[in-house]
Design brief:
single chain, about 400 residues, alpha+beta, about 50% helix, about 10% strand
């Protein structure tokens, strides 16, 4: 990577205490673009600059990968997340009919029924782990079914996706320890990526159809299936976990939504803004670019820090306060531009149906222990959330 110029090395590291609001403020105050010396990359810290970079794929390219390490980028090159137009447009087109507003609308009743059955069983226990028993179970069921993977025990999905997502960050002892899980998980996805395993009419089957039509190669199809399954799990699970935590810690929010269920969407969007499920992704600059006082050379790794941008006081008033009246539909938690999350409509549908189901059953939530944060360089979510649900009498 070319040498940095125009900005002092950052005094903080984005992989150290990444959920500390003061760390994010320090990064933003250091400048809109800050060079992280320890890992030799730039980080864009503020909303305006991150959003502008997200839409400018010609300058901030994903085609050389969106991870920090070269080996990780080599492994995902050609996946939907690691391509630019026109190749990216071709891949998105494969799923266009499955992810259109009309197609998502047709899923509403089915998803509502499945979500309602899950929440009824879990809430009926009284006490439960909001992450393990609910937030992870729902996307494992819904996303797994949409992709068409076999209806078998899916307990391994989150350990596998967690390990794969860790490859997007720095090399450390935890990544080394997780590599056997990465390999076995990707081998498992490959083992079910065939006509005999994937449900007809599913997203996975559509990817295989594209191979038969000559639109995708078999290698490209495997990359897309890997990306769909890994990306489709964490975003929704982490957001649902954060939502359950906030309504337990701030019960007035649940009271507000009970009084006015139309606030459900705003509750979810503000949750996404405050606790971005994915902290960000890397890009590679294709030309020299000036960001504030920083001159970023061509060929530099740049981290688009969605989490920091979503807490930028230049864009959101009192950003560290959960404000259900804010309804921040312009947050960056699902990315922006051509690389906006392909499954975000499904994630919103899942979340809205979860909230609706809980509203019919739960008067209030109460923490029964201390929430446990996941230790992860790029994924922002809880590992455990001990809860009690007090039923509506």
């Amino acid at each position: 990577m070319p040498a940095a110029s125009g900005a002092p090395p950052a005094s903080v590291n984005i992989f150290d205490a990444p959920d500390d609001p003061s760390l994010l403020r320090d990064l933003r105050e250091a400048g809109p673009a800050v060079y992280v010396k320890d890992h030799n990359f730039w980080v864009l810290t503020r909303y305006e600059e991150v959003r502008a970079a997200a839409i400018d794929w010609e300058t901030y390219s994903s085609a050389e990968g969106v991870a920090l390490l070269d080996a990780a980028n080599d492994a995902i090159r050609g996946a939907i997340i690691a391509t630019d137009p026109p190749e990216h447009d071709v891949i998105r087109g494969v799923l266009a009919s499955q992810t259109s507003p009309r197609a998502i609308a047709k899923l509403r009743e089915r998803i509502a029924s499945e979500v309602d059955a899950i929440t009824a069983e879990v809430v009926g226990r009284g006490t439960f782990d909001g992450v393990v028993d609910l937030a992870r179970v729902i996307p494992a069921r819904i996303v797994g079914d949409l992709i068409g993977i076999p209806d078998e025990p899916r307990d391994h999905l989150f350990a596998g996706s967690d390990a794969v997502n860790r490859t997007f960050g720095p090399a450390d002892a935890r990544l080394e320890a997780d590599m056997p899980t990465v390999i076995s998980f990707l081998d498992w996805i490959a083992s079910v990526s065939n006509r005999s395993s994937l449900r007809p009419g599913s997203w996975g089957a559509a990817v295989l159809d594209a191979v038969d039509a000559g639109v995708l190669t078999e290698h490209s199809a495997q990359l897309q299936l890997n990306a769909l399954l890994v990306a489709g799990l964490d975003t929704t699970a982490n957001a649902l976990g954060a939502l359950l935590r906030v309504v337990a810690e701030q019960p007035h929010l649940w009271e507000a939504v009970k009084a006015d269920p139309s606030l459900s969407a705003a509750l979810f969007e503000e949750t996404l803004r405050m606790w971005s499920p994915v902290r960000g992704f890397f890009r590679l600059t294709t030309r020299d670019v000036q960001v504030g006082d920083a001159a970023i050379p061509a060929g530099s790794r740049v981290f688009l820090h969605f989490q920091s941008a979503n807490r930028d006081e230049r864009h959101y008033a009192h950003p560290d306060v959960f404000d259900i009246s804010r309804n921040p539909v312009d947050h960056l938690s699902f990315g922006y531009g051509v690389h906006g999350c392909v499954g975000q409509a499904v994630a919103r549908l899942e979340a809205h149906t979860v909230i609706a189901s809980l509203l019919r059953r739960v008067d209030s939530f109460e923490l029964t222990g201390t929430p446990e944060q996941r230790e992860h360089p790029l994924i922002n979510g809880l590992a455990h959330l001990p809860l009690q649900a007090h039923p509506i009498s």
